[in-house]
Amino acid sequence: MSLDIVTDIVKILNQERCFLITSHINPDGDAVGSMGAMYYILKELNKEVFLYNISGIPDRFSYLKFFKHVSMRLDRDDYDCVIFLDCGDASRAGGEINNIKKNIIINIDHHPTNDYFGDINWVDINMSSVGEMVSYIAEEIGLELKGDIAQAIYTAIVSDTGSFTFSNTRVSTLKTVTKILENGFDLDEFNRNYQRYWSINKVHLHGKAMQRARLLYGGKLAIISIPRDLLSETGASVEDCEGIINYIRQIKGVKVAAVLREDQDRVKVSLRSWGEVDVSKVAVELGGGGHKNAAGASIFSNLIRDKIPIIGEAHSGASLSEAEQVFLNCIEKYIT
What's the pLDDT band for 305 if we cut at 50, 70, 90? Predict the structure, then answer.
């Protein structure tokens, strides 16, 4: 790919010495895979590289060899260059990162809500994934898409394209994947690692969550609300909630799928759509962001007070039922 921005990024990768790579809190496959791919690029260039994610990398990605190098704390307070991957804004990587010295910030992302916070900003909303974007950087420096870097990039692309079923799967995406396969990528081994990680607790959680599914607005909205006690009841983890939304997204007639999960001081909202509804607009109204067909937000008590003034200032925390009311009030104009 011939892009001036890729050339500019490669120039910085070559000239600087010490790098920090980070991605957003609670990273998905694209955030994790793109971190790994960038790590291998910089190691190939014989750079000093640190990997940081404030919430850590989910265990389901432990098959990626760089997994053990990711730290949940910052190992030093100054870096020549900090590379943010898959972050719509710098805060998505956590507040601690604001306290370090960083001479250059590279921001690589594909979210339409990105606020261009870097010194170098490569933001392309047409890209399938940040992993695909990083693959072009690898090729620019002459790296073949094989081995560990191929596994990281493939993880990123498969994750953000829904295994090539989402509309962000482009011809260029499939060309990148073709190069990976032509270089001997073992799909059987990958799928064993990528798909076979469920616990029996996760199965129980998903079963009980499905029983809570409802259809609203004439069947256009499918919604599941998950209270905290459902996780403790099934022995499941927050990570085990991954994938629940994909089931209700497949219900006939559904235009938007939503999962609301009660957390300590907030309610996490995950949104998916089939294209008729731009759920990133809904997420932005709720203080979040994302893509047209996949977005998310966190509803805090202050948002609930703003949207439901009768609750009053003394209210603390964000209850699931109140957050659901705020969400339904918000999405109504987009779906009716």
Answer: low
pLDDT-derived band at 314 (thresholds 50, 70, 90) equals very low
Task: State the Cα torsion 162-165-111-244 to the nearest 10°.
Answer: -40
Q: Collect all residues with Cβ–Cβ distance below 8 Å to 66 and sequence separation of at least 6.
A: 35, 36, 39, 40, 51, 148, 152
Give the Å distances, CA to CA, from 307 to 113, 263, 286, 314.
22, 19, 10, 15
Widest CA span in the chain: 61
- Give 99-146 as a DSSP string: GSEEEEEEEEE--TT----SSEEEE-TTSS-HHHHHHHHHHHTT--S-
How many whole angstroms separate alpha carbon 333 and alpha carbon 78? Answer: 47
- CATH of region 4-195: 3.90.1640.10
Rounded to 5°, the CA angle 312-314-315 comes to: 75
| CA-wise closest residue to 271 among 258, 282, 261, 283 | 258
Q: Residue 312 pLDDT > 50, yes or no?
A: no
**Collapsed DSSP state (helix, strand, coil) of residue 303:** helix
Over residues 191-205, the pLDDT tens digits come to 999 998 899 999 999
Q: Residue 329 has which token pair?
A: 């009030």
**Are 34 and 167 contacting, i.e. CB atoms less than 8 angstroms apart?**
no
How much of the chain exceeds pLDDT 70, in percent?
Answer: 94
Residue-range domain boundaries for the chain: 4-195, 200-335
Instruction: Read off the pLDDT band of 113 (50, 70, 90).
Output: confident
CATH of 200-335, one of 3.90.228.20, 3.10.310.30, 3.20.20.140, 3.30.930.10: 3.10.310.30
| Arithmetic mean of pLDDT, 65-81 | 93
pTM of the entire structure?
Answer: 0.89
Amino acid identity at 91: S
What's the rounded Cα separation, in Å, for the pair 234 and 236? 5
